[in-house]
Amino acid sequence: MRDPLDRYYTPFALARSCVSVWWEHAQVRAAFEPSMGGGAFVEALQAHGVTVAGCDVDPDAFGLRAVTSSTIRDFATLSRDECARIMGQPVEAVVGNPPYDHAEAHVRHAIDVADRHVLFLLRASFLGSRRRIRGLWREHPPRRVWWICPRPSFTGDGKTDGAEYALFWW
To answer: How many CB atoms lie within 10 A of CB 104?
Structure first.
């Protein structure tokens, strides 16, 4: 049964690996986490000295409490200026694991919000849509895509959902 808030939190080790591989190419000082959830990307970014702010739709999301500035909102409803106000500065990067059902909307919005970088953990099948090939990929081709291997578990029991995952960097 699917969680009504699409809460399938990123494992901390996976978030640390994602941020570390990206860090070799793009060091940032500040990042906005648009789906703070369990706080894995928050912790991974903070371990690199990054100032993190963000949001989540779930008022009980642990990630909201792991930063000094956050809001309980859907990222897609926040303007670029609102994100910068929450951040306390222009948003240099947007980093996280968006809700699967709204992934493309979150990618597009993150590209509009971020000054320089967007880094999202997404299902690898995100590459395969005809609509995205004609739209998103033509308009905003990613700088790089890293395949995640082995397949991660988001359920805490080590079981996987049968999907492959990748780290996308715009």
So the answer is: 16
